[in-house]
Amino acid sequence: MSSTAPDLRFPDDALAATLEALAAEVARSAGRLVVDERPDAVEVSATKSSATDVVTVMDQRSQDHLIARLREARPDDAVLGEESGGAAGTSGITWVIDPIDGTVNYLYGIPAYAVSVAAVVGDPTTHGAWRPFVGAVFNPVTDELYLARAGGGSRVVLAGGVERELSPTACDELGQALVGTGFGYAAERRDRQGRLLLDLLPQIRDIRRIGSAALDLCAVGAGTLDAYYETGLNPWDLAAGWLIATEAGAKVGGFGGPGAELTWACTPGLEPAFPDLVEAGTERHLRG
Ligand code: IPD
Ligand code: CA
Questions:
Q1: In the CATH hierarchy, which fold is given to the domain comprising 174-287?
Q2: What pLDDT, in 10s, does the model give residues 229-259?
Q3: Does ligand 1 come within 6 angstroms of the Cβ of 31?
Q4: pTM for this entry
Q5: How far apart are the first and last CA of the chain?
Q6: R_g of the chain, CA atoms, integer Å
Q7: Cα–Cα distance measured from residue 177 to residue 244, given in angstroms and rounded to the nearest whole number
Q8: Contact at 8 Å (CB) between 150 and 247?
Q9: For ligand 1, atom 13, which residue shows the shortest CA distance?
Q10: Which of 74, 127, 129, 143 could form a disulfide with 123 if both were Cys (CB 3.0 to 4.6 A apart)?
Q11: Ligand 2 centroid – CA 81 distance (Å)
Q12: 151-164 pLDDT, tens per residue?
């Protein structure tokens, strides 16, 4: 049976550059909001998939802020966000946003959370049917802004405005690889993720669980991790980081692309060993 392939052509570079600047601006302003107005005691306002999958008042406020700014600048684009709300559009471009990626870190005051903003083509609610062409990930505590647009490379703007191009590490041995990962919120998924981790641990240098998938993907692009994998990510966790890592020269994939059951990212020297390892392990523990 044949199906119509989705139209995943990117807009021209002039528009992409304009949208990259917009993504940078809104990610920064939402990031400042969550830091400047962080209550002394951050409280959980709701739970989602499990009792530990939390939303704070600031997740919702950050998302509302992002949607308002994006709709003002680009009224015809759609918006898909992690929290409630969102908007339909007619332009064929969707903003995929995570208002605080690393909400548990935010709750505890651990300085590893980010606002993630991506512009994508295709349908981000269908696995494999969309691609990011602009991405911005802003850590408001360290004041680091990761940016990319398709074909334009990726860079980080450090506190004080210094810019650096990103590039992944030269690691080419699994046994030397420092690997980031993360775990979902549902107990059953965590049980299977734990078994996959047990398989991997003896074969790599070590594991880091930073607590923000967006920052993990940027870290592979920036060369502060050699590789990263996680099962069960949503489009808002990975959209901007996927592009930032890829444009830095890292490899990113999964079964039929990142998302759904598996997202992996690694420096080129770890391909195919790293994807083979995590894909086989995921088949064994998550699909079997
Ligand atoms: C979570 C973080 C975490 C990852 C989880 C995500 P949230 O996003 O990215 O690192 O392990 O899978 O759900 O809930 O903090 O936006
Ligand atoms: Ca997230």
A1: D-Maltodextrin-Binding Protein; domain 2 (3.40.190)
A2: 999 999 999 999 999 999 999 999 999 999 9
A3: no
A4: 0.95
A5: 27
A6: 18
A7: 20
A8: yes
A9: 184
A10: 129
A11: 10
A12: 999 999 999 999 99
